[in-house]
């Protein structure tokens, strides 16, 4: 996967360059690999009201779903930012990753210096709230 990993990081960097960040100037890019080989890009998109701001990871995931990709059909996501250490997804993005990706999907986190950390979705959010968490207990 090393050549594929490099391509995914390159795509994430290209997405980062498209970020709309007039307030924070903090650009983040993501590249989501579908099982078909198609790559969906995402970048962070800010809003003056802050709450409507969307992270790069969610932009990539939501674009893929809007394009017809099915939850669980992704094999990896790369995230890159101009940070000291490899950038990590925020808590909201981790929850969305749990919902739309398999627990063993690789999350490649990087920075512009080339530092990398690779974890699975499950490792990023242990004890996650999942659809099975919504199951109601039967009372007799």
UniProtKB/TrEMBL annotation:
Biological process per Gene Ontology, one example term: nucleobase-containing small molecule metabolic process
Ion transport as UniProt keyword: no
Keyword Metal-binding: yes
Cellular component GO terms, alphabetical: cytosol
Residues reported in the UniProt entry to bind substrate: 44-50
Pfam families: dCMP_cyt_deam_1 (PF00383)
Entry EC no(s): 3.5.4.5
Active site, renumbered: 57 (proton donor)
Positions of Zn(2+) binding: 55, 90, 93
Cofactor: Zn(2+)
One Gene Ontology MF term: identical protein binding
CDD domains: cytidine_deaminase (cd01283)
Keywords: Hydrolase, Metal-binding, Zinc
Reactions it catalyzes: 2'-deoxycytidine + H2O + H(+) = 2'-deoxyuridine + NH4(+); cytidine + H2O + H(+) = uridine + NH4(+)
Recorded superkingdom: Bacteria
UniProt cross-references to Gene3D superfamilies, sorted A to Z: Cytidine Deaminase, domain 2
Domain CMP/dCMP-type deaminase as annotated: residue spans: 3-132
Purpose of the protein: This enzyme scavenges exogenous and endogenous cytidine and 2'-deoxycytidine for UMP synthesis.
NCBIfam families assigned to the protein according to its UniProt record, in alphabetical order: cyt_deam_tetra, PRK05578.1
Entry protein name: Cytidine deaminase
Origin organism lineage: Bacteria, Bacillati, Bacillota, Bacilli, Bacillales
């Amino acid at each position: 996967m090393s050549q594929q990993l490099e391509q995914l990081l390159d795509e994430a960097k290209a997405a980062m360059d498209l970020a709309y960040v007039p307030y924070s100037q903090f650009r983040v890019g993501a590249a989501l690999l579908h099982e078909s080989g198609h790559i969906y890009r995402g970048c962070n998109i800010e809003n003056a009201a802050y709450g409507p701001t969307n992270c790069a990871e969610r932009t990539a995931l939501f674009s893929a779903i809007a394009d017809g990709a099915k939850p669980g059909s992704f094999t990896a996501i790369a995230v890159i930012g101009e940070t000291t250490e490899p950038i990590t997804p925020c808590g909201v993005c981790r929850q969305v990753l749990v919902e739309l990706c398999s627990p063993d999907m690789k999350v490649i986190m990087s920075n512009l210096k080339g530092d990398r950390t690779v974890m699975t979705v499950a490792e990023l959010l242990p004890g996650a709230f999942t659809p099975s968490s919504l199951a109601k207990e039967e009372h007799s």
